[in-house]
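CHAIN AND CONFORMATION:

***
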Amino acid sequence: MKATGIVRRIDDLGRVVIPKEIRRTMRIREGDPLEIFTNREGEVIFKKYSPIGELGVFAAQYAETLYKTADLPVVICDKDSVIACAGVPKKEFIDRRVSPAVEELMEKRTLTRVTENSPLPVTGEGDSAYSASVVMPITAQGDVIGAVLSMKTADKPGAVPEDAETKLVQTAAGFLGKQLED
């Protein structure tokens, strides 16, 4: 754990203000859910809660199935980072922060097909040979909780016909969203 040197007092209602600098660097926005942990040493730890993170194993299996049956490389992310992928190098994607461009597309709440002229990097690093082809936000109970992205490379633009790729990504996002609602 890293010390920040910031000390805050609890008010009479039990509230603590998380400093703006920490909220900005940790990408914590108003309304974001936080999970609270404690340990035996008396530490209280706040962690951003990712509903889709609970489906990590299931999401990985879904991505793997899409890749094996349709030869469709897929990345599944929550609002902040990649939680599952198949058909792309896991070291390049798993647990990496999503790019600001992907965050913007998630907030639009609609399916987006990325044109070949403007590649969309998935992670903030942006140095991957892979870019997103189709982006579909995952919604549960009216909230955007992540996205499913089909992937492509410059040398292999798309193995799956565009309409089928779009429908597969939409189906995956819809199915994962429904899993969290039930």
